[in-house]
């Protein structure tokens, strides 16, 4: 590894099992540790974005364990502004169709939105069932 990478983002969710189901079925991400969470063996499940990045799905009652810096426990229920997923064009189209099939409200398609790799060709936004906002985009044509 020669550069800094994004390892994970922790999202606060009301029901981690339901959230994992949403991300697996509607978004197409691989669920991780869901059975272990349901059995009480781990504190939260996750979903895999790619080989290097996951989203942790933390239940609100996990906030008491967030003591790494003062005030961390107070973050429960405060979603970030949004998380952006960059996809190839075909996966972008497939995600939009899958979300629509699941009845997820979608923003209009935007164009030329700036991001980590410059101007994206297309983008759109959606919310998960807990109100976390996601942007999907692609840079290639």
UniProtKB/TrEMBL annotation:
Pfam families: Glyoxalase. It comes from Streptomyces pyxinicus. It comes from the Bacteria. Residues 5-139 form the VOC domain. PROSITE patterns: VOC. InterPro entries: Glyas_Bleomycin-R_OHBP_Dase (IPR029068), Glyas_Fos-R_dOase_dom (IPR004360), GlyoxalaseI/FosfomycinResist (IPR050383), VOC_core (IPR037523). This is VOC family protein.
């Amino acid at each position: 590894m020669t550069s800094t990478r994004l390892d994970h983002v922790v999202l606060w969710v009301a029901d981690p099992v339901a959230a994992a189901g949403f991300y697996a079925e509607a978004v197409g991400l691989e669920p991780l540790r869901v059975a272990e969470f349901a059995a009480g063996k781990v504190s939260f499940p996750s979903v895999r974005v790619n080989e290097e990045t996951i989203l942790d799905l933390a239940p609100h009652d996990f906030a008491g364990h967030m003591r790494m810096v003062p005030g961390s426990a107070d973050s429960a229920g405060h979603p970030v502004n949004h998380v952006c997923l960059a996809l190839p064009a075909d996966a972008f189209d497939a995600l939009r169709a899958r979300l629509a099939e699941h009845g997820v409200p979608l923003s209009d398609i935007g164009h030329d939105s700036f991001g980590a790799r410059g101007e994206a060709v297309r983008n759109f936004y959606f919310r998960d069932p807990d109100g976390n906002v996601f942007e999907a985009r692609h840079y290639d044509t």
